[in-house]
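pls design
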């Protein structure tokens, strides 16, 4: 009977050791995944900051007054005077 008790105790002891190793490994994986999560959150925050900066830059670059100034200065365009505008009426040609 002592031999059977020895094997039961040995198996139970081995199971305790295996369980302890599994707990340690699980805690390690939890820490690794948490560190990855923190890195991803930091990346997300940096991307959010960049996105907000780009939205502000787009708003500043697309203002009507800025576009008009660039059109006048760089392209030499201007708004036509009321007398320079001709309205054409449709004659119906080319209609099916």
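designed seq:
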């Amino acid at each position: 009977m002592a031999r059977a008790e020895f094997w039961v105790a040995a198996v139970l002891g081995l199971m305790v050791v295996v369980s302890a190793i599994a707990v340690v490994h699980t805690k390690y994986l939890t820490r690794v995944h948490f560190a990855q999560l923190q890195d991803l959150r930091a990346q997300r925050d940096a991307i959010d900051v960049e996105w907000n900066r780009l939205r502000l830059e787009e708003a500043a670059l697309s203002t009507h007054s800025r576009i008009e100034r660039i059109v006048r200065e760089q392209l030499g365009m201007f708004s036509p005077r009321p007398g320079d505008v001709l309205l054409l009426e449709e004659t119906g040609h080319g209609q099916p």
